[in-house]
Amino acid sequence: MELKVEALKCTGCRICEFACNYHHDDSISPIGSSMMFYQEEKKNYYGMMVKRAKTLYLGRPEGEQILQPGEQIEGASASAKPILLRIACDGCGEEENGPVCIQACPYAVLSMEGE
Amino acid sequence: METMNNYNGIILIVDLESKECETEDLSEELLEKALGGAAVNMELYEQYKDRDPLILGSGFFTATFMPFACAGVITGKSPVTGTVAHVPFGWQTGVELKLTGFDFVVILGKSDNPVRLWLHDGLSDIDDSSDIWGRDTWESTDKIREAYGDEMIQTFLIGKAGENRVLSAQVSENYWGSRDKAGLGAVFGEKNIKAIAMRGLGALEVAEGFFQKCVELKNEIINGTIKGKAGLKDIAADLGMDSDIIEKLKSMTHRNNASFNCPYPYYTFLKYREAPDAMAMDGEPEPGCLVSDLSGFASLQSAGLDGPRAMEKCCRLGLDPTSAGMILKKQGASNLEALDKLAETGHDKAEAATCWDIENNNEKEISQTAGAFSAAVPPKGIFANQEESAQWWIHRQALSYVLGLDPIIMLMVPEMTDEKIVEFVQVSAEWDEFSLDDLKRITAELIEKSK
Question: What is the pLDDT of residue B365?
Answer without folding.
Answer: 85
